[in-house]
Amino acid sequence: MSFALFNAPFPENSARVGFSGGQLERLGEKRDEAGVEKAIADLRARTLIVGRGNVLLEEVDSLPSVMWRTFMEAEALGAQIHEPVLLGYEADGAPRFACFCDLDKDDPPEGYAIIDYRSVYIAGYLNDQDLGALAQGAALVAWHQSHQFCSRCGTKSEPTDGGYKRICPSCGAHHFPRTDAVVIMLVVSGDGKRVLLGRSPHFPEGMYSCLAGFVEPGETLEHAVRRETDEEAGIKVGRVAYHASQPWPFPYSMMIGMYGEAISEAIKLDDELDDARWFTRDEVNQMIEGVHPHGVKMPPKGAIAWRLVEDWVTS
Hints:
alpha+beta
């Protein structure tokens, strides 16, 4: 007898969003001091270079496309190679790392480009596997940059376990990387014929997307969907279903894609949104195809909002 939950698609829906294609073997058992030193000494070891929301890419044929550097190259480019984060290993055992560099986007080294993470995936500069490694490395490096001091006593902490832990030398406290949970939800009308989309003040002109918000302490994902939808748009939500997730290195979030069934329809905006509207299937198809008569458009392909909307349209 089959288990009903295994009737879900495989690969799962999460495999079809940006930043989700990482294939490195993380091998947590090799993150002790000896394992990390051995990985650093491996002649096949390579590192990516990130800093404050940007990644350094080598230009090949005038296009940014290569992000892996040797440690010698990374040091010459200004990266802080003394505290690398061990991301994992390629299928052939070659180690992969991430290092921080105080990148100046307006002054890249000759032959290189400094590009923000969002533009990297929108423009398709990296393959899915490297984009997944970038999400991992960017999030870990950002956490180290913002959590260098012990939250218990204020002493500067020290990285260990390949960058997956910081230990305070004064009080002995252990600190671990954080991942912030964010629900992003496509709310569907009770009759299933329309969806709720909104636009935040920072969105590009004409863009509408799914509503979203951080999960608060003591909440289930379902409660977070209902609370955020009610707070932002005044819409009550009943049933909630999970659809997909997406690593989101801005700076270290996990986007959790959900569908919600609306049990009210009157929109009442708070100050987080410029606008929110109900859209029909025909309108959403126009947005996806880029032919909406009023210039309304979707987030870029690869964003989990796109996946939520497209999968609803084709359902």
